[in-house]
C-alpha cells in the first residue's frame, strides 16, 4: 500500500546567510555575471523555489536559470559599469519565492563592495600656485605647500610629490618634500639671477597615475648689490699740456638690483682737475677740466664713486690711475741765486773750484741739464784760458794759476740748458774770489838795496839815546795779516848801540855814543810779514859815527861843475815833484768829493794829514792798527839823491811838497799809471821808479845814479 503524502507549502525559502558580500571591481565590463547562492526550500514541487528577484537598482539585474533537475539559480548581471568613486558599496535584497499557495519567500542582503581600480588621477587644489619670496631668504624657509587628492582608495590614493621638468638651477634653489608637498629654500635666492621661478610639481598616486601643477615663485628684490663700474676705454697716460675737455676714460655704471635699488649716481672727488660727463644712460666720460702740471702733481688717482638709491644705499668705488707725461715747460733752476767760490792763489792748473747745480722739474731728456759758461773776457785775460765748466756736472775748474796780486776776484756767467725741444735755459753769476797766499816777501823801499853806491847814514857822536838814525821802509804785496810787517835788528857791529822799532822800522840809538864805539857801524835789519809761514827780507845799513860834517866829507863841495849840475838837478826834481803832487792832490780831492757821503772820516784824516810831515811821522805800534790793506795807513815818500866820490858820500832829505793823504785804493790804482808816466817822463831816463800798486797808499822812490849828481850839496 502506498501512501502518498501531498506536500503542503509549509516552508519558506531560506538562504544560508542573511547577507552575502560581493567584492566587485569597478570598471568591470557590462554584462559581467556574478553567480548567487541558491536559497533552500524543503518543499517540493511547486512549493519549492520557483523564482528569484532583486531589489531595484541601476547597476544590476537578476538572471534566473533552471538546472537540469528543475532547480532554479540566479546570477547578478551587470547592467552599468560600477564606479567606486560614485558608489563604493551597494546593498541589494535578493528574494527567493516558491510556487505554493500562499506563496512563501525568503530574503538575503547582498552587499556589493565596489573594489577600487586606479581609474582616478590625483587632483591639485590649484593648477597654478603663485607665491612671493624675498631674495636672500635663509635655507629651509617655507616657500609654499601644494596639495593633491585622489578619489581612489588605498594604494591608489597614496600620493607622492616630485619636481617635473625643471632647470637644474631650480633643483639647487628649492627642495620638495615628497609626502607633504612642502617646498622649501635650499640654495641662495638671488633676484639678480632670476626674478621669477616657474616650478612644475607632479603628484603621483600608488597606481602610477599623476597630475601636475605649476608653482610661480616671484622673487622680491632687496638692495643687496652695489653698483658696478665697468671701464670701456682708458688712457692711462696723458700729456700735461692736454687741453680741457680731453677724454681720459669711458665707463659705464650698472646695478643688478631693480627700481630704486638699481638707480645710480656717479661722482669723483673735488680736488682733481677732472670732471664727469654723462653721455648715455649710465655711461660717462672722464674729461680734463683744468690745466695740468706734471711738476706739481705727476699722477692722479681718481676715485669714481657710484651709489644706488636703495635703502640702505650701497656704494662702490673704482680708482683710475692717470699719469701725466712731461713737456718741456720748466727751465733749469739753480739752487742759488748767485755763487761765490774761493780759490787760493798760485793754484795748480785744473784745480776744482766749486760746483754749480741746476735742477729741472721736467723728466727724462727735458730734465737733462748741460752747463756752459757764456763767452767773454774776464778783465785783462780771456775767459777760455782761465775757467772751464764741466758740461755734465757743473764743476768749475781753474785752467791756469791765478795771482791775487794781479786779480782779487772775477765773475763768470754760467748757463744751464735742458735737453728739451726747444731747450730752456737759465743763467747765474759765479763770483770767484781769489784768496791771498803769503807768496810775497817784504820789499824794502828804503834804504835801497843792491845799489852800486849804498848810502851811509851819519850820526854825530854827540847824539843822545833815542836819536833817529834812519827809517827802514818796506811794503808787502800780499794782503791782510800776510802784509803786516815787523822790524828787528838781526845783526849789528855793536848790538847795544842801536835799536829798531818793531812796527815802525825806525833805527834809533839806544844809548849815548862813547869814544870806544867804532866809527863804522853795520846794521842788518830783518823785515818779516805775519803770514804762515812768514817771509822776510833783510836790509843792510851803513852808519858812520862822526864828530860833524868835516872837510873830508864835504870835499865834493869844492867841485863847481858838480855843484852847478846838482843845483840844476835839484830844481828840476822840485818842479817835477810839484807837478806830480798837484795832479795827485786834484785827483784825491775829486774822489773825496764824489764819495763825500761815505768818506766823511776820510776827510777828517785828510785835514789831519795836511799837517807838517815831520810833526806826525810815527808808524803804528801794533800791526793790528793798520788799515788792513796790507801796508801802513799813510804814504811816506822819500826822495833821495846820492852822489859818490872817493870813498865818501853825502846825502840830504828833501821834504815832500805835498803831505801824505789817504787815498782810495781804486782811485789810486787808476792814478798810479798816470803818475808813473808823468814822473818818469820828467826825470832822467836813468832814474828808476818804484811803485807799489797793491796798497791803499802811494809810495815812490826816485833813485839817481852817480852820474846824475855832479854838484856838491850843502847840508840843510
UniProtKB/TrEMBL annotation:
<keyword id="KW-0677">Repeat</keyword>
<dbReference type="InterPro" id="IPR020894">
    <property type="entry name" value="Cadherin_CS"/>
</dbReference>
<dbReference type="GO" id="GO:0005886">
    <property type="term" value="C:plasma membrane"/>
</dbReference>
<feature type="domain" description="Cadherin">
    <location>
        <begin position="230"/>
        <end position="334"/>
    </location>
</feature>
<protein>
    <recommendedName>
        <fullName>Cadherin domain-containing protein</fullName>
    </recommendedName>
</protein>
<feature type="domain" description="Cadherin">
    <location>
        <begin position="16"/>
        <end position="124"/>
    </location>
</feature>
<dbReference type="InterPro" id="IPR032455">
    <property type="entry name" value="Cadherin_C"/>
</dbReference>
<dbReference type="GO" id="GO:0005509">
    <property type="term" value="F:calcium ion binding"/>
</dbReference>
<keyword id="KW-1133">Transmembrane helix</keyword>
<keyword id="KW-0732">Signal</keyword>
<dbReference type="Pfam" id="PF16492">
    <property type="entry name" value="Cadherin_C_2"/>
</dbReference>
<feature type="domain" description="Cadherin">
    <location>
        <begin position="335"/>
        <end position="444"/>
    </location>
</feature>
<keyword id="KW-0106">Calcium</keyword>
<feature type="domain" description="Cadherin">
    <location>
        <begin position="451"/>
        <end position="562"/>
    </location>
</feature>
<dbReference type="InterPro" id="IPR015919">
    <property type="entry name" value="Cadherin-like_sf"/>
</dbReference>
<dbReference type="Pfam" id="PF00028">
    <property type="entry name" value="Cadherin"/>
</dbReference>
<keyword id="KW-0472">Membrane</keyword>
<dbReference type="GO" id="GO:0007156">
    <property type="term" value="P:homophilic cell adhesion via plasma membrane adhesion molecules"/>
</dbReference>
<feature type="domain" description="Cadherin">
    <location>
        <begin position="125"/>
        <end position="229"/>
    </location>
</feature>
<feature type="transmembrane region" description="Helical">
    <location>
        <begin position="569"/>
        <end position="594"/>
    </location>
</feature>
<dbReference type="InterPro" id="IPR050174">
    <property type="entry name" value="Protocadherin/Cadherin-CA"/>
</dbReference>
<keyword id="KW-0325">Glycoprotein</keyword>
<dbReference type="InterPro" id="IPR002126">
    <property type="entry name" value="Cadherin-like_dom"/>
</dbReference>
<keyword id="KW-0130">Cell adhesion</keyword>
<keyword id="KW-0812">Transmembrane</keyword>
<keyword id="KW-1003">Cell membrane</keyword>
Amino acid at each position: 500500500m502506498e501512501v502518498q503524502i501531498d506536500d503542503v507549502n509549509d516552508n519558506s525559502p531560506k538562504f544560508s546567510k542573511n547577507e552575502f558580500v560581493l567584492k566587485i571591481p569597478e570598471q568591470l565590463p557590462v554584462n559581467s555575471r556574478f553567480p548567487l547562492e541558491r536559497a533552500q526550500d524543503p518543499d517540493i514541487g511547486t512549493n519549492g523555489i520557483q523564482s528569484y528577484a532583486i531589489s531595484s537598482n541601476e547597476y544590476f539585474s537578476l538572471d534566473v536559470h533552471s538546472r537540469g533537475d528543475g532547480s532554479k539559480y540566479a546570477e547578478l548581471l551587470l547592467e552599468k559599469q560600477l564606479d567606486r568613486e560614485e558608489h563604493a558599496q551597494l546593498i541589494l535584497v535578493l528574494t527567493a519565492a516558491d510556487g505554493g499557495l500562499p506563496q512563501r519567500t525568503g530574503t538575503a542582503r547582498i552587499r556589493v563592495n565596489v573594489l577600487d581600480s586606479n581609474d582616478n588621477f590625483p587632483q591639485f587644489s590649484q593648477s597654478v600656485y603663485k607665491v612671493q619670496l624675498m631674495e636672500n631668504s635663509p635655507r629651509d624657509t617655507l616657500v609654499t605647500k601644494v596639495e593633491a587628492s585622489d578619489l581612489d582608495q588605498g594604494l591608489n590614493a597614496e600620493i607622492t610629490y616630485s619636481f617635473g621638468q625643471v632647470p637644474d638651477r631650480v633643483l639647487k634653489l628649492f627642495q620638495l618634500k615628497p609626502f607633504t608637498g612642502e617646498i622649501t629654500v635650499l640654495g641662495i635666492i638671488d633676484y639678480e639671477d632670476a626674478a621669477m621661478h616657474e616650478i612644475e610639481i607632479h603628484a603621483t598616486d600608488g597606481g602610477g597615475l599623476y597630475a601636475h601643477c605649476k608653482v610661480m615663485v616671484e622673487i622680491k628684490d632687496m638692495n643687496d648689490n652695489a653698483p658696478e663700474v665697468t671701464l670701456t676705454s682708458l688712457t692711462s697716460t696723458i700729456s700735461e699740456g692736454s687741453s680741457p675737455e680731453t677724454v681720459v676714460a669711458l665707463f659705464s655704471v650698472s646695478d643688478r638690483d631693480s627700481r630704486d635699488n638699481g638707480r645710480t649716481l656717479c661722482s669723483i672727488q673735488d680736488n682733481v682737475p677732472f670732471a664727469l660727463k654723462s653721455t648715455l644712460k649710465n655711461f660717462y666720460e672722464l674729461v680734463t677740466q683744468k690745466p695740468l702740471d706734471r711738476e706739481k702733481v705727476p699722477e692722479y688717482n681718481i676715485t669714481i664713486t657710484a651709489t644706488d638709491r636703495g635703502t640702505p644705499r650701497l656704494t662702490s668705488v673704482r680708482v683710475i690711475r692717470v699719469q701725466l707725461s712731461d713737456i718741456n715747460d720748466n727751465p733749469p733752476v739753480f739752487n742759488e741765486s748767485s755763487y761765490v767760490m774761493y780759490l787760493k792763489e798760485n793754484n795748480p792748473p785744473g784745480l776744482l773750484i766749486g760746483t754749480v747745480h741746476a735742477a729741472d722739474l721736467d723728466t727724462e731728456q727735458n730734465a737733462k741739464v748741460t752747463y756752459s759758461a757764456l763767452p767773454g773776457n774776464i778783465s785783462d785775460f780771456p775767459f777760455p784760458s782761465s775757467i772751464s765748466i764741466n758740461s755734465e756736472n757743473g764743476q768749475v775748474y781753474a785752467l791756469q794759476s791765478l795771482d791775487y796780486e794781479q786779480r782779487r776776484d772775477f765773475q763768470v756767467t754760467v748757463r744751464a740748458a735742458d735737453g728739451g725741444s726747444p731747450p730752456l735755459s737759465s743763467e747765474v753769476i759765479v763770483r770767484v774770489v781769489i784768496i791771498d797766499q803769503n807768496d810775497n816777501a817784504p820789499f824794502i823801499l828804503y834804504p835801497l838795496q843792491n845799489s852800486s853806491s849804498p848810502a851811509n847814514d851819519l850820526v854825530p857822536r854827540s847824539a843822545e839815546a833815542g836819536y833817529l838814525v834812519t827809517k827802514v821802509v818796506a811794503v808787502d804785496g800780499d794782503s791782510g795779516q800776510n802784509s803786516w810787517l815787523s822790524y828787528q835788528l838781526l845783526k849789528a857791529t855793536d848790538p847795544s848801540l842801536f835799536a829798531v822799532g818793531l812796527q815802525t822800522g825806525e833805527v834809533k840809538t839806544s844809548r849815548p855814543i862813547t869814544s870806544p864805539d867804532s866809527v863804522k857801524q853795520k846794521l842788518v835789519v830783518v823785515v818779516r810779514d805775519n803770514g804762515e809761514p812768514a817771509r822776510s827780507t833783510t836790509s843792510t845799513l851803513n852808519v858812520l859815527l862822526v864828530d860833524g860834517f868835516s872837510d873830508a866829507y864835504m870835499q865834493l863841495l869844492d867841485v863847481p861843475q858838480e855843484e852847478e849840475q846838482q843845483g840844476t838837478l835839484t830844481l828840476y826834481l822840485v818842479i817835477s815833484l810839484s807837478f806830480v803832487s798837484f795832479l795827485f792832490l786834484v785827483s784825491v780831492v775829486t774822489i773825496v768829493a764824489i764819495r763825500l757821503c761815505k768818506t766823511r772820516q776820510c776827510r777828517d784824516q785828510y785835514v789831519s794829514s795836511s799837517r807838517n810831515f815831520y810833526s806826525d811821522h810815527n808808524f803804528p805800534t801794533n800791526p793790528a792798527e793798520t788799515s788792513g790793506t796790507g801796508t801802513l795807513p799813510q804814504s811816506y815818500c822819500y826822495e833821495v839823491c846820492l852822489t859818490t866820490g872817493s870813498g865818501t858820500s853825502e846825502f840830504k832829505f828833501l821834504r815832500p811838497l805835498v803831505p801824505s793823504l789817504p787815498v782810495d785804493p781804486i782811485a789810486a790804482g787808476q792814478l798810479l799809471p798816470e803818475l808813473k808816466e808823468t814822473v818818469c817822463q820828467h826825470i832822467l831816463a836813468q832814474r828808476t821808479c818804484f811803485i807799489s800798486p797793491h796798497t791803499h797808499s802811494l809810495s815812490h822812490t826816485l833813485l839817481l845814479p852817480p852820474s846824475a849828481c855832479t854838484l856838491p850839496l850843502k847840508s840843510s
